[in-house]
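Anyone else keep sequences and structure tokens together like this?

Example one:
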Amino acid sequence: MIKKSLTAAAVATLVMTGSVGAQSARDRIHIVGSSTVYPFATVVAENFGRSTSFKTPVIESTGSGGGLKLFCAGVGVEHPDVTNSSRRIKASEVELCASHGVNEIVEVKIGYDGIVMANDKKAPGYQLTRKDIFLALAKAVPNGAATGVDSMIANPYKTWKDVNPDLPDVKIEVLGPPPTSGTRDAFVELAMEGGCKSFEWIKALKKADKSAYKSVCHTVREDGAYIEAGENDNLIVQKLQANPNALGIFGFSFLDQNADKIKGNAIDGVIPTFDDIADGRYPVSRPLYFYVKAAHVGVIPGIPEYLAEFTSDKAWGPDGYLSDRGLIPMPETERGQFAKAAKSLQPLKLAAN
């Protein structure tokens, strides 16, 4: 439990930074971060605003990396109270927070999500493997049977059929998030790296030279085959409708909410569905989080009550309203663990991913 003295310290910090009168300066919670978590947080915020005496929080979709940068910039009413993230906070980000006086961070995992590669409902379906995804989107790829980083060549593949003769003879066009996005981070780690490791010599490189391994597996091509479409996943959905040849990368919840317009494609033989993500069969799935600045509790009104709403069974439980929006619920024991952490404002101790 955060000690009462922390609130006093927070108020002192707010005064010293010129943000005198925190309650009058800002009377509602300010949330930034992940575009994937944004719709879930928005629903919680709306319910929170309707069911309590507190004002509805303001939420900005800035991307996970962008949100954490804003969150870690300092303590005070000019800085966000909460940041949403579609990946776990990095050790380097915890250090950045600490360097700006943000030392008490509460981590709340909210559930799970799958990353899908979707296209227009009328377009041909794809049976992709993670190896196909790596070969289609990596900046450099293995040159035949040759091994070693020096033998790799700039990605020559123009169509999906070039990558795999079983795939459609369609130009590779993939609309995806920018580097500031947690979805991008998770996609390169789960999908691209998953395919990259199918080459034994690259897999061995992870132990021999981790930096080179990451460069090979995580670097996305920049020749137009991968198109950065910003943090607005709804815009990607619209672009897929306008271009049936393109594929788009985003969280399962957006597929679920737009199932009348687009469809998800199989990866390693598994179609992205609620049940297959929940039981771990779908290979490209990840946890979702939000982070709370404990120093703002007691200064900005409503933070404990917002946390209580988000971690209630009516919100994130198996039959909760977030499940209706596509969030994959955590098991009961895990929900209990993070609900307790949110209630007690338990500080994050382990920064490793």
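And example two:
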Amino acid sequence: MAAEQVTPTSYITHHLTFNAKSIGDGGFWTLHVDSIVTAVVLGLVGIGFIWWVVRKATPGVPGKLQAFVELMIEFVDDQVKDTFTHGDRHKFVAPVALTVFVWVVLMNAMDFIPVDWIAWFTEHVLHQDNWRPVPTADVNTTFALALSVWLLMIFFSIQVKGLGGWLHEIFCAPFGVKPLWLAPLLIVFNLLFNIVEYVSKPLSHSLRLFGNMYAGEIIFILLWIWAATGLAGTIFGSALAVGWAIFHILIVLLQAFIFMMLTVVYIAMAHEHH
């Protein structure tokens, strides 16, 4: 963006515009390339880092990186152990929880990089005009993650209870089907109750993370605008940006932790019989 053309409105619009590529006629089939590419790269970085540290792990007194990874793995494993009690958590649930936690933390942490640095890199190196750096500030990303967890929940429900057991639960729980003369009405109530529950889980799971990260992104952009308004703005805007960044560390970690715990809770609920 040319300096003489920058206004607060154009600055905000520029940094909140996705790098969207349409497939065919567009509409639903529009990909946010910035969110997809950034999320994939961060996922590879997170997995690659853990793999690299574990591959070089040694017995005895661990180094700083090994100790950090071991503490993180133990922390996640302890949370899963307290929630998932339906079998060997190390086969699938604990690794998924670790992957989700690390991936979401890294995507959230992109909020700490000043948007102007990202804009300069993408415009001069990638030759892209728009690039939003925080994948979790895109509802498409958070909903895709939540929908994946939702599908896992359904998969484990059917695996544990069988297709018949799962359908029986949908139509016969939580109100039951007795007395028999009320069975048709109770079946309708059970179905409606379960539909609301199934629909609300991915919505709440995704929108909680999206709302917090989108709000954080907006606040950072507004603070950078204030920091560019003159000497006083630079001083106070930069000071507030640093203060918000310190507070935002808690939000980044907390939202990743909540998303991970809900993932474990939903998978654990899929193993329960009603």
